[in-house]
Amino acid sequence: MSGDRLRVGVLASGSGTNLQALLDTVHGREATIVAVASDKPGCRALGRAEEAGVPTRTFPRDAYASREERDLAMAEWLRGKGVELVVLAGYMQLCSAAFLSAFPGAVINVHPSLLPAFPGLGAIAQALDYGAKVTGVTVHFVDEGVDTGPIIFQQAVPIDDLSDVEAVHDRLRPVEHALLTEAVRRAAAGKLRLDPAHPRRVLTG
Protein backbone atom coordinates (compact mmCIF):
# COMPACT_ATOMS: atom_id res chain seq x y z
CA MET A 1 0.00 0.00 0.00
CA SER A 2 1.30 3.44 -0.85
CA GLY A 3 0.93 6.30 1.59
CA ASP A 4 -1.43 6.12 4.53
CA ARG A 5 -4.54 4.96 2.72
CA LEU A 6 -5.39 2.22 0.28
CA ARG A 7 -5.88 3.68 -3.20
CA VAL A 8 -9.13 2.31 -4.65
CA GLY A 9 -10.47 2.39 -8.18
CA VAL A 10 -14.16 1.69 -8.76
CA LEU A 11 -15.85 0.34 -11.89
CA ALA A 12 -19.58 0.99 -12.20
CA SER A 13 -22.24 0.83 -14.90
CA GLY A 14 -25.38 2.17 -13.26
CA SER A 15 -26.77 4.34 -10.50
CA GLY A 16 -23.72 3.98 -8.27
CA THR A 17 -25.34 3.39 -4.87
CA ASN A 18 -22.52 1.06 -3.84
CA LEU A 19 -20.01 3.67 -4.96
CA GLN A 20 -21.88 6.26 -2.88
CA ALA A 21 -21.68 3.97 0.15
CA LEU A 22 -17.90 3.79 -0.29
CA LEU A 23 -17.66 7.56 -0.71
CA ASP A 24 -19.73 8.10 2.44
CA THR A 25 -17.90 5.62 4.66
CA VAL A 26 -14.32 4.70 3.73
CA HIS A 27 -13.27 7.46 1.32
CA GLY A 28 -10.80 9.76 3.06
CA ARG A 29 -10.68 7.44 6.05
CA GLU A 30 -9.36 3.91 5.64
CA ALA A 31 -9.06 4.30 1.86
CA THR A 32 -9.11 6.92 -0.87
CA ILE A 33 -11.16 6.45 -4.02
CA VAL A 34 -8.81 7.84 -6.63
CA ALA A 35 -10.60 6.86 -9.87
CA VAL A 36 -14.02 5.79 -11.13
CA ALA A 37 -14.41 4.23 -14.57
CA SER A 38 -17.50 3.13 -16.45
CA ASP A 39 -18.54 1.49 -19.69
CA LYS A 40 -21.68 3.66 -19.71
CA PRO A 41 -21.18 7.35 -20.55
CA GLY A 42 -23.49 9.54 -18.51
CA CYS A 43 -24.38 6.94 -15.90
CA ARG A 44 -25.27 8.25 -12.44
CA ALA A 45 -22.21 6.62 -10.87
CA LEU A 46 -19.95 8.98 -12.83
CA GLY A 47 -21.95 11.94 -11.56
CA ARG A 48 -21.57 10.77 -7.98
CA ALA A 49 -17.81 10.51 -8.43
CA GLU A 50 -17.56 13.94 -10.02
CA GLU A 51 -19.59 15.47 -7.20
CA ALA A 52 -17.04 14.01 -4.77
CA GLY A 53 -14.11 15.34 -6.78
CA VAL A 54 -12.97 11.90 -7.91
CA PRO A 55 -11.47 11.62 -11.43
CA THR A 56 -13.65 9.71 -13.91
CA ARG A 57 -13.34 8.26 -17.36
CA THR A 58 -15.57 6.20 -19.64
CA PHE A 59 -14.47 3.18 -21.64
CA PRO A 60 -17.41 2.24 -23.90
CA ARG A 61 -17.00 -1.15 -25.49
CA ASP A 62 -17.73 0.10 -29.01
CA ALA A 63 -14.81 2.55 -28.84
CA TYR A 64 -12.29 -0.31 -28.89
CA ALA A 65 -11.49 -3.11 -31.31
CA SER A 66 -11.92 -5.78 -28.63
CA ARG A 67 -12.85 -6.25 -24.99
CA GLU A 68 -9.20 -7.00 -24.22
CA GLU A 69 -8.07 -3.73 -25.81
CA ARG A 70 -10.68 -1.81 -23.81
CA ASP A 71 -9.67 -3.56 -20.58
CA LEU A 72 -5.99 -2.88 -21.16
CA ALA A 73 -6.73 0.82 -21.69
CA MET A 74 -8.83 0.89 -18.54
CA ALA A 75 -6.17 -0.93 -16.53
CA GLU A 76 -3.49 1.50 -17.76
CA TRP A 77 -5.63 4.48 -16.72
CA LEU A 78 -6.30 3.01 -13.27
CA ARG A 79 -2.66 2.14 -12.73
CA GLY A 80 -1.74 5.67 -13.74
CA LYS A 81 -3.91 6.84 -10.84
CA GLY A 82 -1.99 4.57 -8.47
CA VAL A 83 -4.92 2.17 -7.90
CA GLU A 84 -4.09 -0.72 -5.58
CA LEU A 85 -7.55 -2.29 -5.21
CA VAL A 86 -10.29 -2.39 -7.87
CA VAL A 87 -13.90 -2.60 -6.71
CA LEU A 88 -16.63 -3.67 -9.13
CA ALA A 89 -19.69 -1.84 -7.83
CA GLY A 90 -22.53 -2.62 -10.19
CA TYR A 91 -20.16 -3.06 -13.13
CA MET A 92 -22.04 -5.06 -15.76
CA GLN A 93 -19.08 -6.32 -17.79
CA LEU A 94 -16.80 -9.30 -17.35
CA CYS A 95 -13.18 -8.44 -16.66
CA SER A 96 -10.75 -10.03 -19.08
CA ALA A 97 -7.66 -11.96 -18.05
CA ALA A 98 -5.60 -9.01 -19.28
CA PHE A 99 -7.33 -6.70 -16.81
CA LEU A 100 -7.10 -9.11 -13.90
CA SER A 101 -3.40 -9.68 -14.50
CA ALA A 102 -2.82 -5.95 -14.04
CA PHE A 103 -4.28 -6.18 -10.50
CA PRO A 104 -3.44 -9.70 -9.30
CA GLY A 105 -5.54 -10.71 -6.30
CA ALA A 106 -6.81 -7.15 -6.00
CA VAL A 107 -10.20 -7.05 -7.76
CA ILE A 108 -13.38 -7.56 -5.72
CA ASN A 109 -17.05 -7.64 -6.68
CA VAL A 110 -20.41 -7.43 -4.92
CA HIS A 111 -23.12 -9.78 -6.23
CA PRO A 112 -26.83 -9.97 -5.25
CA SER A 113 -27.06 -13.67 -4.41
CA LEU A 114 -25.54 -16.28 -2.15
CA LEU A 115 -22.95 -17.64 -4.57
CA PRO A 116 -22.54 -20.17 -6.04
CA ALA A 117 -26.33 -19.89 -6.41
CA PHE A 118 -27.59 -17.58 -9.17
CA PRO A 119 -24.38 -16.27 -10.74
CA GLY A 120 -24.21 -13.85 -13.65
CA LEU A 121 -26.75 -11.30 -14.81
CA GLY A 122 -30.29 -11.21 -13.47
CA ALA A 123 -29.42 -12.92 -10.19
CA ILE A 124 -32.47 -11.56 -8.38
CA ALA A 125 -34.83 -12.61 -11.17
CA GLN A 126 -33.18 -16.04 -11.17
CA ALA A 127 -33.86 -16.40 -7.44
CA LEU A 128 -37.48 -15.31 -7.80
CA ASP A 129 -38.05 -17.60 -10.77
CA TYR A 130 -36.61 -20.51 -8.80
CA GLY A 131 -38.93 -19.79 -5.91
CA ALA A 132 -36.09 -19.22 -3.47
CA LYS A 133 -37.21 -18.18 0.00
CA VAL A 134 -33.77 -16.84 0.87
CA THR A 135 -31.17 -15.09 -1.23
CA GLY A 136 -28.47 -12.67 -0.13
CA VAL A 137 -25.31 -10.79 -0.96
CA THR A 138 -21.80 -12.02 -1.69
CA VAL A 139 -18.57 -10.04 -1.86
CA HIS A 140 -15.85 -12.03 -3.58
CA PHE A 141 -12.52 -11.81 -5.32
CA VAL A 142 -12.82 -11.77 -9.10
CA ASP A 143 -11.27 -14.47 -11.25
CA GLU A 144 -11.73 -15.33 -14.93
CA GLY A 145 -15.02 -17.15 -14.33
CA VAL A 146 -18.49 -15.68 -13.87
CA ASP A 147 -18.85 -14.94 -10.16
CA THR A 148 -16.61 -17.89 -9.29
CA GLY A 149 -13.84 -16.22 -7.28
CA PRO A 150 -13.11 -16.89 -3.58
CA ILE A 151 -15.81 -15.56 -1.26
CA ILE A 152 -14.93 -12.77 1.19
CA PHE A 153 -18.28 -12.10 2.88
CA GLN A 154 -21.85 -13.38 2.56
CA GLN A 155 -25.11 -12.57 4.25
CA ALA A 156 -28.47 -14.28 3.78
CA VAL A 157 -31.66 -12.26 3.33
CA PRO A 158 -35.21 -13.72 3.40
CA ILE A 159 -37.34 -12.87 0.36
CA ASP A 160 -40.30 -15.23 0.75
CA ASP A 161 -42.68 -12.27 1.16
CA LEU A 162 -41.49 -10.55 -2.03
CA SER A 163 -42.22 -11.20 -5.70
CA ASP A 164 -40.76 -8.15 -7.45
CA VAL A 165 -37.14 -7.74 -8.54
CA GLU A 166 -36.91 -4.12 -7.46
CA ALA A 167 -38.42 -4.86 -4.05
CA VAL A 168 -35.83 -7.59 -3.50
CA HIS A 169 -33.03 -5.28 -4.62
CA ASP A 170 -34.27 -2.60 -2.23
CA ARG A 171 -33.95 -5.13 0.60
CA LEU A 172 -30.52 -6.30 -0.52
CA ARG A 173 -29.04 -2.86 -1.14
CA PRO A 174 -28.20 -1.97 2.50
CA VAL A 175 -26.54 -5.38 2.87
CA GLU A 176 -24.51 -4.78 -0.28
CA HIS A 177 -23.35 -1.45 1.10
CA ALA A 178 -22.40 -2.89 4.48
CA LEU A 179 -20.51 -5.92 3.17
CA LEU A 180 -18.69 -4.05 0.41
CA THR A 181 -17.52 -1.24 2.65
CA GLU A 182 -16.36 -3.72 5.28
CA ALA A 183 -14.41 -5.66 2.65
CA VAL A 184 -12.62 -2.47 1.62
CA ARG A 185 -11.88 -1.68 5.27
CA ARG A 186 -10.36 -5.13 5.76
CA ALA A 187 -8.35 -4.78 2.56
CA ALA A 188 -7.04 -1.41 3.75
CA ALA A 189 -5.97 -3.02 7.00
CA GLY A 190 -4.20 -5.83 5.16
CA LYS A 191 -6.64 -8.39 6.51
CA LEU A 192 -7.90 -9.97 3.28
CA ARG A 193 -5.78 -12.94 2.29
CA LEU A 194 -6.20 -16.44 0.96
CA ASP A 195 -5.78 -19.30 3.41
CA PRO A 196 -2.61 -21.16 2.36
CA ALA A 197 -4.27 -24.40 3.48
CA HIS A 198 -7.39 -23.78 1.36
CA PRO A 199 -7.01 -21.62 -1.77
CA ARG A 200 -10.73 -20.81 -1.91
CA ARG A 201 -11.03 -19.69 1.70
CA VAL A 202 -10.50 -15.99 2.36
CA LEU A 203 -9.20 -15.01 5.79
CA THR A 204 -10.63 -11.68 6.90
CA GLY A 205 -9.12 -11.13 10.35
Please characterize this protein's 3D structure.
The chain is α/β, with parallel strands linked by helices. It has a single domain (6-109, 136-155, 173-203), classed as Formyl transferase, N-terminal domain (Rossmann fold), CATH 3.40.50.170. The chain has six helices and nine strands; from the N terminus they run βαβαβαβαβαββαββ. The protein has helices at 17-25, 44-51, 67-80, 97-102, 123-130, 165-188, and strands spanning 6-11, 31-38, 56-58, 85-88, 107-111, 134-141, 151-158, 193-195, 198-203. It has a seven-stranded mixed beta sheet. Strands 8-9 form a two-stranded antiparallel ribbon. Strand 1, helix 1 (17-25) and strand 2 (31-38) form a beta-alpha-beta unit. Helix 1 runs parallel beside helix 6 (165-188). The radius of gyration is 16 Å and the shape is globular. The two termini are 18 Å apart. The mean pLDDT is 96.
